[in-house]
Amino acid sequence: MGHARQPKQQRGPWTPAWVVALSIFVVAPAASWSAPGSAISFDGIDDLVVVADRDTFSPPVNTMTISFWAKIPTTATALGNGSCGSTGRYFIAKGNTNQWEWAVENDNNSKLCVNLWQLNSNNHGNVSISRTLNDGLWHHYAITLTYLTRLVLYLDGVQVASTTSFSKTMGNGTEPLRIGGRADGNNFWGILDEVRIEKRELTAAEIATQYNSTGQSGSSANLAASWHFDEGSGTTTADYSGNGATGTLLNGPTWVTGLVQLPATDTTAPTGTVTINSAAARTNSPNVTLALAATDNSGSVAQMQLSNNGTTFNAPEPYATSKSWTLTTGDGTKTVYVKFSDAAGNWSTPATATIILDATPPTGSVSINNGAASTTSTSVTLTLSATDALSPVAQMQFSNDGLTYSLPEAYATSKSWTLSTGDGTKTVSVKCSDAAGNWSTAATDTIWLATGGALTVTITSPADGAIFAAP
Fold first, then answer.
1. What is the 3-state secondary structure (H, E, C) of 347-378?
2. Is 160:92 a contact under the CB 8 Å cutoff?
3. CB 105 within 8 Å of CB 89
4. Tell me, what's the pLDDT at 10?
5. Could you tell me the sign of the dihedral formed by the alpha carbons of 259, 265, 268, 272, in that order?
6. How confident is the model at residue 36, as a pLDDT?
7. Looking at residue 297, what is its pLDDT?
8. Can you list the positions of beta strands (E) in 377-423?
9. What is the rounded distance in angstroms from the CA atom of residue 443 to the CA atom of residue 441?
């Protein structure tokens, strides 16, 4: 793309791409076109750009970010078998017999794969997404990898897949880096431009920022290599990182105009909703689960921020459809505010949801047979009274021993109940709960049970009618 970088900056975000946690970005830019310089077209047969091996191209040596632009024509024939890491058309790869390391693959024009291998070709880890790759449009691909830690894919600056599962270890192989194919003839069909390898893992925020930037940065201390493909002719391509990683064109790849479709200006923010605890009306705990749903005209929602007051929001975090959240303390109606952003940095107005936080149980009382002192029957009637400050009284349960309670049932102010057998003092315990699920301590009442009849007292001395003289 020439040494004059200004036209190149028109094509939109430049995102480095390998980090040994892997993240892939695919930028499907929109509407208009510019011609910022040259690019290289590969015939899908044997065209390659080969760069001599360097330690900085190996994940076990340093974290990496790799990125490039690519356009696959609709006429490109499919090659692949649906299995990542075998037959396919490889954008870029490092490895060969007993020296396998990594590659980015177009499998059958329908799956984008990032493959990691052990040196002996056994799988170390991979991620993939299904999409149509031969759409005839320029796309931006970025990959990050943090060795033995994570491999993540992003689409348009948004994470779409990841893995933290790896088998054994990779090695620092000695094979050259091949742009446009793999050593075994699985060659790329299409145009590549602006290939870049950086010696660090970009954060999600940096990826989103670079995706939305107006150009790519120049040489930096973190660059391992950067090929602009701006020469337009010849059999070599310069490394603009200053590290001297010159690429050699083999088998006649063609210099072409680096046409890149410009991203359309996006000023429309996402729209979204939030619900708390599956839209429950009440909760007895400040720890809740939020369900979030957001859409954007670009097709991707990137980040979200949350707040309990609508003024102070947490730091932006990747958009997710579920989020654990803590309400402010203290009983009462609580409101949660959520803002969503797209990859272009447009933030929505807050979506809101409310819930009543009620952590205080009801209070109440119970009376047996309207407060009678005794009864001759185990069948009694209980009269209940319970109140709650924020929620309706919902349920009640009973016990004759204060330990084993009946199953919860709908709250009522009257209840037929059976006392335990055996004459004597009987105690009935009642607990009530509110609609938030708070159970009260037990309210109690007692009554004397005399199943033999009412208590009779007979006086045998002194005799009836006897008169006693004062001492």
1. ECCCEEEEEEECCCCCEEEEEEHHHCCEECCC
2. no
3. yes
4. 36
5. positive
6. 58
7. 84
8. 379-387, 393-399, 409-410, 414-418
9. 7
The CA distance from 443 to 453, in Å, is 28
* Spatial separation of the C-alpha atoms in residues 183 and 246, rounded to whole Å: 18
Q: List the beta strands (DSSP E) in 244-285.
A: 247-250, 254-257, 260-261, 271-276, 282-283
**Joined tokens for residue 362:** 């009801």
| Res 25: pLDDT | 44
pLDDT < 70 regions, the chain: 1-36, 209-220, 259-265, 453-459, 468-471
CA 325 to centroid of chain Cα atoms? 14
- Give yes or no for a contact between 187 and 45, defined as CB atoms under 8 angstroms apart: yes
Backbone angles phi, psi at 470, to 5 degrees: -65, 140
4 Cβ contact partners less than 8 Å away, ≥ 6 residues apart = none
Please say whether the dihedral angle defined by the alpha carbons of residues 220, 223, 225 and 228, taken in this order, is positive or negative.
Answer: negative
118 token code pair: 């052990």
Q: What is the pLDDT of residue 24?
A: 45
Q: Residue 141 burial by CB count (10 A; 0-12/13-18/19+): exposed, middle or buried?
A: buried
The CA distance from 87 to 12, in Å, is: 32
Residue 73 in contact with residue 223, Cβ under 8 Å? no
Q: Which domains are present in the chain?
A: 6-261 (2.60.120.200), 271-357 (2.60.40.10), 363-449 (2.60.40.10)
Distance from the Cα of residue 319 to its chain's centroid: 6
Q: What is the pTM of this model?
A: 0.54
* 277 sits in which H/E element: none
Query: Do the beta carbons of residue 66 and residue 196 sit within 8 Å?
Result: yes
The predicted pLDDT at position 210 comes to 66
| Amino acid in position 458 | T
> Hey, is 425 helix, strand or coil?
strand
Q: What is the pLDDT of residue 27?
A: 42
